[in-house]
């Protein structure tokens, strides 16, 4: 342990390390949360940065606390904190210390990759190339992910990774090709859209459609929707934006008429942006299990803010969708709609009756306005995170040469780009 400088208060530095790791966990949820705006994300990032800054100021002691926490906890949040200090400090032995722990616990990769995304690009020079030329698929995967986050083209390393035998490396490379608009790799990617591995098949098809394919890749995504491959929702987010309106209606009809796929149908309707389905969505709001997601789909199309506009209701007192406090309850998964407001179906119906004249069936809407580049840019600036992700996808599908906007990046960096 390093000598503690006289101005450093150990328990305060310990708190900085713990809070930074905890706030990273909050952030990892916030980037996909339905109630976080870009402004909210930037505020959370400022809190993270304040604690990281406290560790920077503490010098060697800040590093010692961070690496000790990572060694003890082996959690992604601690990998994020120690990773930032190691990468910024440019001490090879500290970087290797983090790498060794991550290598023995691959579940920490997300935290380390996030640290790379946090550090300013000039401080990463020479470090990412070492990952890309590694013999280890794990480190090549990290290198590809870092390039994708910073929207830097890794060149030949991406092409090599897309045909690698390691499934996780190939998966990340396929996704990165879409994020970075590597149109030159489209033939190689198309060869994999019908791969026997559903993960490879999905990401190959996802990327190929982003790169402009409207043939077998799009058909493959439709298969993922209908066959419930585990990528149904992600596939819906593409196919319901790309298919012709009549094809979308046919696909949604299949989902709507299936008792086990109503949730997917509701999400697909929100993605489709077609107000034709608004009366049906309002009916689903009377079903506790579907009420919140139906309200979100309605908001995606109409732009109404259920909580802010006074259209909120209450879930039944005896309704439980997520984990309970009962010790014998084996349901430990988080309720997927936890952060969504519950709509009052009667108030929502009244709102629709008063405003439906502003919407035309078979037209696509995002937050109350027809989908175009101007509206998508506006949503990227002021929408909530899920809405912003939708806008980013819309823009990428409209502009085949533009990289997918990174809605997970540091808030202040996104604000600067916008």
Automatic annotation (TrEMBL):
Organismal lineage: Bacteria, Pseudomonadati, Pseudomonadota, Gammaproteobacteria, Methylococcales
Protein source organism: Crenothrix polyspora
Name recorded for this polypeptide: TIGR02270 family protein
Leader peptide range in chain numbering: none
SUPFAM superfamilies, A to Z: ARM repeat
InterPro entries: ARM-like (IPR011989), ARM-type_fold (IPR016024), CHP02270 (IPR011959)
